[in-house]
Amino acid sequence: MIVILKEGAPKDHVNHLLNDLTQLGLKTDVIKGEHKQIITLIGDTTKVDIENLMARQVVENVRRVSEPYKAANRKFHPDDTIITVGNQKIGQGYFTVMSGPCSVETEEQIVEVAERVKAAGANFLRGGAFKPRTSPYSFQGLGATGLELLLKAKKATGLQIVTEIMSLRDIDLFADVDIIQVGARNMQNFELLKELGHCNKPILLKRGLANTIEEWLMSAEYIMAGGNTNVIMCERGIRTYETMTRNTLDISAVPLLKQVSHLPVIVDPSHATGLTSLVKPLSKAAIAAGADGVMIEVHNCPSKALSDGAQSLTPDQFDNVMESIKRQLEFEGKTLLKA
Amino acid sequence: MIVILKEGAPKDHVNHLLNDLTQLGLKTDVIKGEHKQIITLIGDTTKVDIENLMARQVVENVRRVSEPYKAANRKFHPDDTIITVGNQKIGQGYFTVMSGPCSVETEEQIVEVAERVKAAGANFLRGGAFKPRTSPYSFQGLGATGLELLLKAKKATGLQIVTEIMSLRDIDLFADVDIIQVGARNMQNFELLKELGHCNKPILLKRGLANTIEEWLMSAEYIMAGGNTNVIMCERGIRTYETMTRNTLDISAVPLLKQVSHLPVIVDPSHATGLTSLVKPLSKAAIAAGADGVMIEVHNCPSKALSDGAQSLTPDQFDNVMESIKRQLEFEGKTLLKA
Amino acid sequence: MIVILKEGAPKDHVNHLLNDLTQLGLKTDVIKGEHKQIITLIGDTTKVDIENLMARQVVENVRRVSEPYKAANRKFHPDDTIITVGNQKIGQGYFTVMSGPCSVETEEQIVEVAERVKAAGANFLRGGAFKPRTSPYSFQGLGATGLELLLKAKKATGLQIVTEIMSLRDIDLFADVDIIQVGARNMQNFELLKELGHCNKPILLKRGLANTIEEWLMSAEYIMAGGNTNVIMCERGIRTYETMTRNTLDISAVPLLKQVSHLPVIVDPSHATGLTSLVKPLSKAAIAAGADGVMIEVHNCPSKALSDGAQSLTPDQFDNVMESIKRQLEFEGKTLLKA
Amino acid sequence: MIVILKEGAPKDHVNHLLNDLTQLGLKTDVIKGEHKQIITLIGDTTKVDIENLMARQVVENVRRVSEPYKAANRKFHPDDTIITVGNQKIGQGYFTVMSGPCSVETEEQIVEVAERVKAAGANFLRGGAFKPRTSPYSFQGLGATGLELLLKAKKATGLQIVTEIMSLRDIDLFADVDIIQVGARNMQNFELLKELGHCNKPILLKRGLANTIEEWLMSAEYIMAGGNTNVIMCERGIRTYETMTRNTLDISAVPLLKQVSHLPVIVDPSHATGLTSLVKPLSKAAIAAGADGVMIEVHNCPSKALSDGAQSLTPDQFDNVMESIKRQLEFEGKTLLKA
């Protein structure tokens, strides 16, 4: 860590600062430049509070040299993490396809979709019971009833379930859910993350719309710091000025995360752009970039979808996308386990 | 609301769609263009689910003509809302200054800061007990103890309290807090917003880092839909590519909100830029743009601040800023009530 | 095109507006909503000046239904454009690899790189003679001398040349250049685009750092409107808040452009992220997403590179990337012609 | 400047790098951390090419400690620059109001607007002769004829002229223009900037839509490096995800620029938001934040405006805005000279 001092910083203030830093167990060096002085800090700087440091009147800026994340850092865990969920594996050569409707609506709907996506090759069923909606006047999901319907679909097909949690108050309701999803809007709901750190289920952590890759890793760190190391990262598009797509898929995040972290990374092309016509090319791009899975919205009757229909494929369209995905996985030597 | 149909949309699908829309109580008109057809919808479109509509195979795009917010809409509430909190008022000519440290640390600290900011003219004490921190390894705030210290400072000075809630589980702890703050990261924590809609305290709703003004108003709508109409909007900077400031203060949001909504709007120049040297000019800009208040970080000993120190003024610096603010409020004919 | 009128727009003003619109040869319809009226316009709206329309006191907003681009629009040119450059083809199944150093430095350097990238399979040599640099104190390129060195490398290897133009004053110097590149910073240098519209060389049009896909197509339209329809679009990353990569590669732009336009689209993974370790995964992602080519920086001695070295591969690294690219092109059934 | 080395960087490579840096006249120090080594550079680092440094295989990252701009840096020129243009002054207490239509259309129009804005108190006439338009099918300005009309308006009113240049080919046409404007889209048209560095006219440099404050200062540096130190910075909004305003006015840029640079800074509220209703509050905010002027669009008949009408005030609306501006300038103790 490097601390840049303000010009003309009084000697006694600087000494005071150096003293405090030494007491934190850090080795310090002072370099005097033409205009500015800098202090270099050596030791475990993960726990140094940058804002605290910047609060000192003599400090102009502070810059990290090492990454602030530890548990998620590949440097300390060189091997890929494989997440095992029942008979499924995610990561290090095991590819996953999570599919299903944006919202769970009826038993008939969810079972039918589950059957279709399973037949096409998906190995997890996704579906929203609790729905984060911009407007309080929009359909908010079936809630606990939706979770029950998902479990019925699981029973009918054997597909394990991925579904989103919106409040730590609901955590007990998720006892039979296989993978708990944290949505983009809750990526920095730190109280929820802490709670999930104490449960023993895999967490699918979606990237926030305006969050950096480093912040995203720090949110994974919140979960892992609690003891739950089963975190799956999901890139789902970030907010930019572009308006032709709903969000901008940050495809570079995939190989970058694979380099700096050992956690599995999947891509959600449906939410990333909001356009069904882009699901196939972006799923292929995700595989090519090294992703460990994709999450794709499929609806058995999009014209009646209660939410997010524009980005949902029909089962027939999904069959077509899955054929492409399977061919490419074979080319890349990746494994898609049967559900 | 305008529905743009895809080219070559089959007649029977279009008729089916028109039928469904009519059943929602909307009047429809079909306009045939050279390449595309559009449908115009007349009636209460607030409850129309745009994503639902876009799910129809024949629909290319949907565009609102009217605003999706009702309770917060000036059109239906032409007069400015004035929020009354104890002996204080916020809005329509009544300006508010909320000041205090980022984090509550000790009784001595918070009481001392409270005395200083009160003496300078602030009419609310702000301070963080529950702190949203990017890193799980950073100080997370004193929690319930912090709330107790804030109440001691209130008792000592008479300044009412503004502090942030991070989890709906904590809501009972906030019984004696005067204004509950929802932080930027929780602006779309909809479960929390719904809960706050059922309490009878004023809510300070900070804008999310990547949220549009419309989404921000929809979050106010979540609170107001529950019955709590005492919402204060707080612009605190949005995330852009600029790196010299921590965030970018969207000053235009102030006059724009005052035009489209009747809710009071305040500005937080401390968090918006992260630079103390910008607090004075941006506080002045906020007043000039029509803001109903400012929230300013002040710390009695910034060099020991446990969080966000770089943006905290010393009490002496705050005295200087308050002199400017008072002169400008007098010039603008706005009232700053004594605490 | 849809014109949304302000509430309470006076009848005579509206009639005046309708009259003007009719005189432009457009068919108008007026729809009266509960709060607002809208006018729908049918006919050739490409030439309607939206800002002009919005200037009318009675107009609240104007929304396009049809795209503002014509020459670049796939709707009017359903078949893919293939750009033929000497013995090379780009588009519709013909993939291109343009490689070389960021800056041309010496004859030895450029010839050596040209030989290496040709041997690896590249079919164009790229290299900067005129360099857009943020700082006036940085190396600005060899200029005309750099162009001469490129032509020497062309003579030595047979590789055709792609290089950037920075000023319309230099256009005669580019007489022997095979493809003229317009850099991101000049994407809306309209005077330059107009001039290039009158030359008969293929233009590689890079996307501006903050430009929408629609603006990018409109810049292609500037060139095509002048008669030069040989435009190759190059996605090279857009500016977002993410700091781990230099820019954010908008991979969705590739399939989206292929859908709405008939022009070839290539991807520059080197400039998009500024990280050599991402060049291979992002080149693969580009192919998977349907790109017609990639532009990759290669330098024979990156440690002495005068500009942009961090993103340059060594020739050995490039060999490795090309092996992946070739295998994937074979899998996708695309053709990479020999230079 | 700080150079962060990669882990495990070979000793001989590091020595080679140190040797090269020493030859640039820089003093180097090597600090060994637990995981990484850093090198600190002391001396004139303005000319160090960061990309060049980053090209070295052993270098992970490079961070500046000092600013890369010199001529525009307040550190080396502590006093405010005052730009003198005929009988007018801009900067250090002298406020300027530049007003007029987006496009020059007819002699009658421009003279009438000039008379009205002069009567209201503006001290410069702005108007576009060469217009940068997104679409080639939109009105492109009257060109040279437009410049002649502006000079007629100058003759009629005595108001000096500010107008935009779009191509270095046109520079001779601007011989009688008083202030040459560089538009946002040309902020990094470096060839144009170099040319303007050799002319002796004040340059109004608008900030690019996606450019950082540092890049903007570097573009000023391009002009100043050529000998022309008369540069006026103009903040006109940056591109963000917000859609309610056309761009987002970065008001913080005003006080920040005043701190780090000695150049005058003005604000263009018309282009920043595209909404006439925001011109008054944002002009006031600009003054409060310390701006040295504003540029405001005024049109004598907005309903016929050929471009950008939505953001143009009528002369009557401008009178009203000017009354506010004058009152506030008096309050702030700033001088608005008569034209």
Q: What does the largest sheet of chain A look like?
A: 9 strands, parallel
Give the number of helices of chain A: 10
Instruction: Work out the oligomeric state of the chains in this entry.
Output: homotetramer
User: Which fold does the CATH topology of the largest domain in chain A refer to?
Assistant: TIM Barrel
* Overall tally of domains of chain A: 2
Structural class call of chain A reads: alpha/beta
Organism (chains A, B, C, D): Clostridium facile
Domain DAHP synthase ferredoxin-like (chains A, B, C, D): 1-67
EC number (chains A, B, C, D): 2.5.1.54
InterPro entries (chains A, B, C, D): Aldolase_TIM, Class-I_DAHP_synthase, DAHP1/KDSA, DAHP_snth_FXD, DAHP_syn_2
Topology (elements, then pairings):
The structure is a homotetramer of 339-residue chains.
Chain A: E1 2-5, H1 11-23, E2 27-32, E3 37-42, H2 50-54, E4 59-63, E5 83-85, E6 88-90, E7 94-100, H3 107-120, E8 124-126, H4 144-157, E9 160-165, E10 179-182, H5 190-197, E11 203-206, H6 213-225, E12 231-235, H7 253-260, E13 265-267, H8 269-273, H9 279-289, E14 293-297, H10 315-332, E15 335-336
Parallel strand pairs in A: 7-8, 7-14, 7-15, 8-9, 9-10, 10-11, 11-12, 12-13
Antiparallel strand pairs in A: 1-3, 1-4, 2-3, 5-6
